[in-house]
Write a structure and sequence with these properties.
Number of strands of chain C: 3
CATH architecture of the domain at 2-83 and 150-230 in chain B: 3-Layer(aba) Sandwich
Structural class of chain C: mainly alpha
Strand content of chain B: 25-35%
Strand order of the largest sheet of chain B: 6-7-8-3-9-10
Shape of chain C: elongated
Number of helices of chain C: 17
Radius of gyration of chain B: 18 Å
CATH class of the domain at 2-83 and 150-230 in chain B: Alpha Beta
Oligomer: heterotrimer
Helix content of chain B: 25-40%
CATH topology of the domain at 2-83 and 150-230 in chain B: Rossmann fold
Distance between the termini of chain C: 16 Å
Chains: A mainly alpha (478), B alpha/beta (238), C mainly alpha (468)
Structural class of chain B: alpha/beta
Distance between the termini of chain B: 37 Å
CATH superfamily of the domain at 2-83 and 150-230 in chain B: P-loop containing nucleotide triphosphate hydrolases
Number of strands of chain B: 10
Shape of chain B: globular
Strand content of chain C: under 5%
Largest interface: A-C, 86 and 86 residues
Number of helices of chain B: 8
Order of helices and strands of chain B: EEEHEEHEHHHEHEHEEH
C-alpha cells in the first residue's frame, strides 16, 4: 500500500513535469474539439434537411386542404386534373408523408454509414419498393477518405497517444539504470510496473473524460439527457485504452529496448487498427462475395420483360408508362389502378427471389465478420460507436425496413378507398398514416466491454509471464 | 554481513562464477578487483537476487538471498555504476521516493538530514538531478542507503568517472558507514581507492577468487603486482 | 565517401532484425494484396463483359414493340474497369457501376459496392494502394527516424565530423540508403503488377506508360517523406522525439488531413440531398429552364414553326409524326435541365477540389492520392466522364427511337410497333476513357502541389546539409 502511495505521488509528479502530458492534454482537447464540432455540424445539417422537407410537406398539405375545400364547395380549380386531391390516388401519389431518420443526440460520435445513405424518403403509392433509392448523393471522395469524427480520434489516434506515452515506461528505467536501483529495494517489480502503468492509465482516462466532457458541453451536446449512453461510450473507450496499456505493459516486458518497443507497438497498432480490419473485410468478400449486380440486373430485366408482357394483357401499354394520364379517362380509372397495382405486385413477387439471394449473401458476410470481430478491438469499438450514434449499417437496415413497411401501410391505406371508388375528403386528412422512426435496439455493449477487458487481461497475463521465464533463457528483466 | 557458500553461476557451458567463497563482516569494506567479465558484477547480481545461482548460496544478514529475496533487500543498499535517478525530480524527491517505496516513511527533515550526512550541499537539495554530477548523484545514493539504515552496501564501480576530490569524499563516506557497522562490498578497477578504503581485498579472474589480502598487510605497489600477475601479464615495473 | 555511407547505412539497416522483419512483412502484404486485387479485377471484368453481352441480348430480343415502350424499358450502361485499377481502386467502391438509361429521366449510377457491404468496409481494403499510400511511408518513418539521432546518441557524430566528412555527402548517403529499399519495393511491385496485367490484356488496354507515370508519382511521394523524416531526425534531440514527430507527420498527412479536408470541403460546398436534387429537377422540368420558357409554351412555338416550315395547316399533314418529333424535342429539353443540375454538382465538386488543394499544403498524401486515382482511371472525374458519356448515349438512343416513330407513323396514329430486328440497329455504348496525357493535363494542380512539396522538402534538407 505504501508503494502505491509513493508511486502515485511521484509518477504523477513525473508525468506533469514532463512536457508530454501538457502536449497530450492540448492535443486531446484539440482533436476531440474538432471531431465533435464536425460531428455536430453534420447532425445539424441532417436535422435541417429533414425540417426543410417536413415544412415543405406542411405547406403542400395546406395547399391541398385549400384545394379540397374549393373542390368540395364546387368551385373550379386551376390544377392539372390528375393532381386534384379528391381522389385517393392523387393524394397517395402527390402528397406523400416524410419517412425520416432523425439523427440521434449522439450522432456526432461516429459518422458510421450516415454519409452514404439518405435520411428521408417520401414513399408514394405508385412507386415500387425497388425504386426506393436509399443511397445519398455524396462525393465519393468524401466516402473514401472518411470522416474526422470522435470515433476516429478514439480508435486511431488515442492508441498512438497511449503508445507515445508508455512505450518506454520500463525500458527507459532500464536504460537509465534507475531500474537496478529500484530492483534493489524490497519491492515486487511486477507490482511496481503494474502500478506505474495503472497510474498512467488513470491519468489518461481522467484527461480523456474531462476533455470529452468539456468539448461536449462546448458544442451543446445534451450530456445530462443522454447520460447513460455517454457513460457507455466512456466505458467502452476506456476499455479500449486499457487494452492498449496492457499491450504496452507486455511489450515493455518482452522487448528489449525503447527503440524496439516503439517499433513493436507501432507494428501492433498497424495490425490491429489497419490490417486486421482490412484483411477481415477482404476475407468476407472473398468467401461470400456479393454476386455481380450486373448479372442481377440482367436477371431482373428478363423477369421484368416477361412480366411486362403479361401486364400487356392487363392494360394498355402506353398508360402503363404514363399512368398519370389514366386518370383522365374516368371509365378506366378504377380498373386501371387496380390492374396497375396488381401488375406491380406481380413484378415484385417475381423479382423478390433474385433480391433475397443478394440479401442473403450480405447477411452471410455480416455473420462471418461478426464471428471474428473480437480479433481486433478497433473493429469492436467502431461497431459500438456506430451503434451508440445510431449510424451503423444495422441501423440503416432497420430504417430501410421500416420505410418499406410504411410504404406498404401507405399503399394499403388508399387501396380500399380506391376499390370502393371513394373520394378523398377533407375529413380523411387526419386519418393519414404517419411515419415514426424507431431506432433498433442494438446489442448490449457489455459484450464489447467484456471482450475488451478479457483481451486486455490476457495480454497483461502474457506480459507477466516474462517474470517467470527462467533467467537462464533470457536476460534478466533488469 | 555477506556470506557466499560455493556460489556458482553457469550460463550453459560458460562459467561466470565458480564456487565463490566470500565473507564480509560488519564494519568491513571488501574490494573486489578484476577485469571485465571476471565475475564481479555477477556476484553482485546474485547477492541482489537479480539472478539465480546454478549452485551454492548467498547470505545477507544470515538470510538466504534466494529464499528471502524481498527480506534481504530491506537490509541492503546498492549503488549501480551508472546511477541516473529521475532527472526531473529533485534530490530530496528522489530520496523520498526510493526510501518510500521501500517502506520507510520519513518526513522532510529526516530526509534532509540524510542528504546532509551523505555530504550533499544544502542548496542542492531542491535542485533537479538532471543538473547533478556523478559525484553528487552518488551522494544521493548513499543517502538512500543511510535512510534505509542498510546493514550491507553493494557498490559497482563507484569511483569510475569521479574526479580526485569527489573520489576522496566518497572514500570518507565509506569510512563513515564502516564506522556504523555497515558491511560493504565494492567491485572496482580503482586499485588506488581500493587500497585507501578497503579492509579486505580480493582479486577475481575467470569467475574465481584467486587471491585475498588484508589491506593493511600490503602496499599499493605490491597490490598492483599481485593484480597483474593474477591477470598473467608480465610485470613491467618490478 | 557517399558510397561508403550508403554501404554502412544499408548494412546497419539489414543487420537490424526489426528492419528485416518489417520489410519482409511489407513484401508479404504487397504480394497478398496484388494477388487479391488481380483476382477481383478478373472477376469484375468477367462480370462486366457478361453483363454487357447479356444486356445487349435483352435489348435486341425485345421483339415487336412500340419504340416508346422500349424507351421506357430502357437499357443499361455498364462501367468498365481499367487495368491500373488493380493497383489503385480509387473511389470505385463508392460509385455505382451501372446506369439505367430510360426515357425522360437521367439516373445516377446504381449499386455501389459499399452500399452492399458491411460497416467494416469503411476501414479500407488490403489493396496495393493501401500499402503504397500508407504502409510504405510508415516504413520510411520506422527505418529513417533515427538516421541522425543514432549518430548523436552513439557518439559517432562527433567522430564523423572530426574525420572531416562533408555535410552534403553524409546526407546524400543517408538519403540514398533510406530510399533504396523503398525504391526496390516499389519497382518490384509495379513490375509485378505490369506482368500480371499484360497477361490479362484481353480486358482493357494496358499501357506501361501509365504504370510508369503512377510509379513516378509514388516515388516522388516517397522522396518527400524521406526528406521530411531525415530533416526531423537531424533536428530532434533524441531518437524518441524523432520517432514521435515523424510518426505524427505520417498521421497528419495520411490519416488526419484527408479526413479533415473532406469534412471541411463537404461543409463549405455541400451537395444537395437526393430528394432536394430531384425536387429541383422536377421544378425546372415543369417551369422550364430558369422558370422561363415552360415546355408547354415551347411546344406551341415548335408546332407553329414546323407548320410554317412545311407549309401545311394541320399536324396530320406533316410527312412525319409530330408527336414523336415533339417527344424527342421534349426529351432534349429535359436533358438540358438535367445537364444544368448535374453541372451544379460538378461545380460543387470543383469547389470541393479547391478545398482539397488548399489543404494539400498540409499533406503530400492528398495530391498523390488524387494523381494515383486519376492515372488508374478510378477517380471521381473519370466517373463523371463516364456518366456524361452515358447521358449522351441515352439522348442519342431516345433520338434513335423517337425518329423511328416519327418517320414511320403520322400524327394521331396509335399502336405502332417497330419490327423485331429494329433494335439491333442501335449502336452499342462504347466508352473511351481519357488518355494519360489528358489525365495529367487535368490534374495539373495536383502535379504542381506535389512538385511544391518536393521542392520544399528538398530545400529543408539542403539547408540542413549546410549546417552539418
Amino acid at each position: 500500500m505504501m508503494m502505491f502511495r509513493y508511486n502515485f505521488k511521484y509518477e504523477s509528479i513525473l508525468l506533469f513535469r514532463s512536457k508530454w502530458i501538457q502536449i497530450l492534454i492540448a492535443l486531446l482537447i484539440l482533436l476531440f474539439g474538432f471531431a465533435t464540432y464536425n460531428g455536430q455540424q453534420k447532425t445539424q445539417k441532417r436535422k435541417a434537411d429533414i425540417e426543410k422537407v417536413t415544412a415543405e410537406i406542411q405547406v403542400s398539405d395546406l395547399n391541398m386542404l385549400k384545394l379540397l375545400d374549393s373542390v368540395e364547395q364546387g368551385l373550379t380549380v386551376n390544377a392539372r386534373p390528375w393532381t386534384i386531391p379528391n381522389t385517393p390516388m392523387a393524394v397517395g401519389n402527390y402528397h406523400p408523408r416524410v419517412a425520416s431518420k432523425p439523427p440521434s443526440e449522439l450522432s456526432f460520435l461516429a459518422t458510421g454509414q450516415s454519409d452514404m445513405f439518405t435520411h428521408f424518403v417520401k414513399p408514394t403509392v405508385r412507386g415500387d419498393d425497388l425504386a426506393l433509392n436509399f443511397s445519398e448523393m455524396t462525393s465519393p471522395v468524401q466516402l473514401l477518405f472518411g470522416s474526422f469524427d470522435v470515433a476516429f480520434v478514439i480508435i486511431f489516434l488515442l492508441p498512438l497517444l497511449i503508445i507515445a506515452f508508455s512505450y518506454d515506461v520500463l525500458s527507459s528505467e532500464r536504460e537509465s539504470g534507475s531500474l537496478r536501483l529500484l530492483a534493489a529495494q524490497p519491492i515486487l517489480l511486477y507490482k511496481w510496473l503494474l502500478q506505474k502503468l495503472a497510474l498512467r492509465f488513470f491519468w489518461v482516462a481522467i484527461i480523456t473524460i474531462v476533455a470529452l466532457l468539456l468539448v461536449f458541453v462546448a458544442n451543446q451536446v445534451p450530456v445530462v439527457d443522454n447520460f447513460s449512453t455517454i457513460l457507455t461510450f466512456l466505458s467502452v473507450s476506456l476499455a479500449y485504452a486499457f487494452f492498449w496499456f496492457a499491450l504496452a505493459f507486455a511489450v515493455n516486458l518482452w522487448a528489449e529496448s525503447s527503440a524496439k518497443n516503439a517499433v513493436a507497438l507501432l507494428g501492433l497498432w498497424v495490425v490491429f487498427v489497419l490490417l486486421i480490419p482490412s484483411i477481415l473485410n477482404q476475407l468476407g468478400s472473398t468467401l461470400y462475395p456479393i454476386p455481380s449486380r450486373g448479372l442481377m440486373i440482367n436477371e431482373m430485366r428478363t423477369i421484368k420483360a416477361e412480366a411486362t408482357e403479361r401486364q400487356d394483357e392487363i392494360l394498355d401499354n402506353y398508360l402503363r408508362d404514363h399512368p398519370e394520364y389514366a386518370v383522365n379517362d374516368t371509365t378506366q380509372e378504377r380498373s386501371f389502378w387496380h390492374s396497375y397495382m396488381a401488375s406491380q405486385n406481380l413484378i415484385k413477387k417475381k423479382l423478390e427471389p433474385v433480391l433475397s439471394e443478394y440479401e442473403n449473401q450480405l447477411q452471410k458476410q455480416q455473420q462471418l465478420l461478426d464471428r471474428f470481430t473480437w480479433l481486433s478491438p478497433a473493429i469492436l469499438i467502431q461497431g459500438s460507436m456506430n451503434q451508440l450514434a445510431d449510424n451503423g449499417s444495422e441501423s440503416y437496415e432497420g430504417y430501410r425496413n421500416q420505410v418499406i413497411s410504411f410504404a406498404k401501410e401507405w399503399r394499403d391505406h388508399f387501396l380500399p378507398m380506391l376499390y370502393n371508388n371513394q373520394a378523398f375528403s377533407s375529413g380523411d386528412y387526419s386519418k393519414l398514416p404517419e411515419f415514426t422512426y424507431t431506432p433498433i435496439s442494438g446489442k448490449s455493449q457489455s459484450y464489447v466491454l467484456l471482450i475488451l477487458l478479457c483481451s486486455g487481461l490476457a495480454v497483461l497475463g502474457f506480459g507477466a509471464l516474462r517474470f517467470y521465464v527462467s533467467s537462464a533463457e533470457k536476460h534478466s528483466i533488469i | 554481513m555477506i556470506i557466499t557458500n560455493n556460489l556458482t553461476k553457469k550460463y550453459g557451458d560458460f562459467t561466470a562464477l565458480d564456487q565463490l567463497e566470500l565473507s564480509v563482516k560488519e564494519g568491513e569494506i571488501y574490494c573486489l578487483l578484476g577485469a571485465n567479465g571476471a565475475g564481479k558484477t555477477t556476484t553482485i547480481n546474485l547477492l541482489l537476487g537479480f539472478i539465480e545461482p546454478t549452485s551454492g548460496s548467498a547470505f545477507i544478514n544470515q538470510l538466504n538471498v534466494q529464499e528471502n529475496t524481498l527480506e534481504t533487500k530491506r537490509f541492503l543498499a546498492y549503488i549501480p555504476e551508472n546511477l541516473m535517478l529521475y532527472p526531473s525530480l529533485s534530490a530530496l524527491e528522489n530520496l523520498d521516493y526510493f526510501s518510500g517505496i521501500g517502506g520507510e516513511d520519513l518526513n522532510k527533515n529526516q530526509l534532509k538530514g540524510f542528504l546532509e550526512e551523505a555530504g550533499l550541499q544544502s542548496d542542492a537539495f531542491h535542485k533537479r538531478i538532471a543538473s547533478f554530477s556523478k559525484g553528487m548523484r552518488q551522494k544521493v545514493g548513499i543517502a538512500i542507503a543511510l535512510a534505509k539504515d542498510a546493514k550491507v552496501l553493494l557498490l559497482d564501480e563507484p569511483t569510475s568517472g569521479l574526479d580526485p576530490k569527489a573520489s576522496n569524499e566518497f572514500g570518507h563516506l565509506l569510512q563513515k558507514l564502516r564506522g556504523k557497522g555497515v558491511a560493504t562490498l565494492m567491485a572496482t578497477h580503482d586499485l588506488f581507492r581500493a587500497k585507501e578504503v578497503a579492509t579486505h581485498i580480493g582479486i577475481m579472474k575467470d569467475g574465481q577468487l584467486k587471491q585475498e589480502f588484508v589491506a593493511a598487510d600490503i602496499t599499493l605497489s605490491q597490490l598492483e603486482k599481485a593484480y597483474l600477475e593474477t591477470m598473467e601479464y608480465k610485470t613491467i615495473v618490478a | 565517401m557517399i558510397r561508403k555511407t550508403i554501404n554502412k547505412e544499408l548494412k546497419e539497416l539489414f543487420r537490424d532484425g526489426r528492419v528485416r522483419t518489417s520489410i519482409f512483412i511489407v513484401l508479404l502484404l504487397l504480394g497478398v494484396a496484388v494477388w487479391i486485387s488481380s483476382r477481383q479485377y478478373q472477376q469484375t471484368n468477367a462480370d462486366y463483359a457478361a453483363a454487357k453481352v447479356s444486356e445487349r441480348a435483352v435489348w435486341e430480343n425485345q421483339g415487336e414493340k412500340n419504340p416508346h415502350s422500349a424507351a421506357h424499358y430502357g437499357t443499361y450502361a455498364f462501367k468498365p474497369k481499367y487495368p491500373l485499377s488493380l493497383v489503385d481502386q480509387g473511389v470505385d467502391k463508392y460509385v455505382g457501376t451501372s446506369i439505367f438509361l430510360e426515357a425522360h429521366k437521367r439516373n445516377e449510377a446504381e449499386f455501389s459496392a459499399a452500399t452492399d457491404q458491411t460497416g467494416l468496409a469503411r476501414f479500407g481494403d488490403l489493396t496495393p494502394d493501401f500499402i503504397l499510400l500508407f504502409i510504405i511511408p510508415l516504413l520510411i518513418v520506422l527505418l529513417g527516424n533515427n538516421a541522425f539521432t543514432k549518430e548523436r546518441e552513439l557518439g559517432t557524430y562527433t567522430l564523423l565530423k572530426s574525420a572531416g566528412a562533408k555535410g552534403w555527402k553524409i546526407v546524400l548517403g543517408k538519403w540514398t540508403a533510406l530510399f533504396l529499399p523503398v525504391l526496390i519495393i516499389t519497382v518490384l511491385l509495379l513490375i509485378l503488377a505490369g506482368l500480371v496485367l499484360s497477361n490479362l490484356s484481353d480486358y482493357g488496354v494496358f499501357q506501361w506508360s501509365s504504370l510508369t507515370a503512377m510509379g513516378v508519382v509514388f516515388l516522388v511521394y516517397y522522396s518527400v517523406f524521406t526528406n521530411l523524416v531525415l530533416w526531423v531526425s537531424y533536428m530532434a534531440k533524441r531518437s524518441g522525439i524523432s520517432l514521435v514527430i515523424s510518426l505524427s507527420l505520417w498521421i497528419i498527412a495520411c490519416l488526419a488531413a484527408p479526413k479533415a479536408a473532406s469534412n471541411i470541403a463537404e461543409a463549405r460546398h455541400p451537395y444537395p440531398t437526393r430528394q432536394e436534387f430531384a425536387a429541383n429537377v422536377l421544378k425546372d422540368k415543369d417551369a422550364g429552364l430558369d422558370g422561363h420558357n415552360p415546355w408547354s409554351k415551347e411546344a406551341k412555338l415548335l408546332e407553329e414553326q414546323v407548320l410554317t416550315e412545311y407549309k401545311v395547316d394541320s399536324l396530320q399533314q406533316l410527312p412525319f409524326n409530330f408527336s414523336a418529333y415533339l417527344a424527342q424535342k421534349g426529351e432534349e429539353h429535359e436533358a438540358e435541365v438535367y445537364f444544368k443540375h448535374y453541372n451544379y454538382l460538378k461545380e460543387q465538386y470543383d469547389n470541393q477540389s479547391g478545398t482539397y488543394r488548399s489543404l494539400a499544403l498540409l499533406s503530400p498524401f492528398l495530391p498523390t492520392r488524387f494523381l494515383s486515382m486519376a492515372i488508374a482511371q478510378t477517380d471521381y472525374a473519370t466517373h463523371w466522364d463516364f456518366s456524361d458519356a452515358a447521358e449522351k448515349y441515352r439522348i442519342a438512343t431516345q433520338a434513335f427511337l423517337n425518329n423511328n416513330t416519327a418517320q414511320n407513323t403520322r400524327y394521331g396514329e396509335r399502336g405502332y410497333k417497330a419490327s423485331a430486328d429494329f433494335w439491333q440497329k442501335l449502336p452499342q455504348f462504347e466508352y473511351e476513357p481519357p488518355t494519360l496525357g489528358q489525365i495529367l493535363e487535368n490534374n495539373r494542380s495536383n502535379l504542381n502541389t506535389l512538385g511544391l512539396w518536393t521542392l520544399f522538402s528538398f530545400a529543408l534538407l539542403f539547408f540542413t546539409t549546410k549546417k552539418i
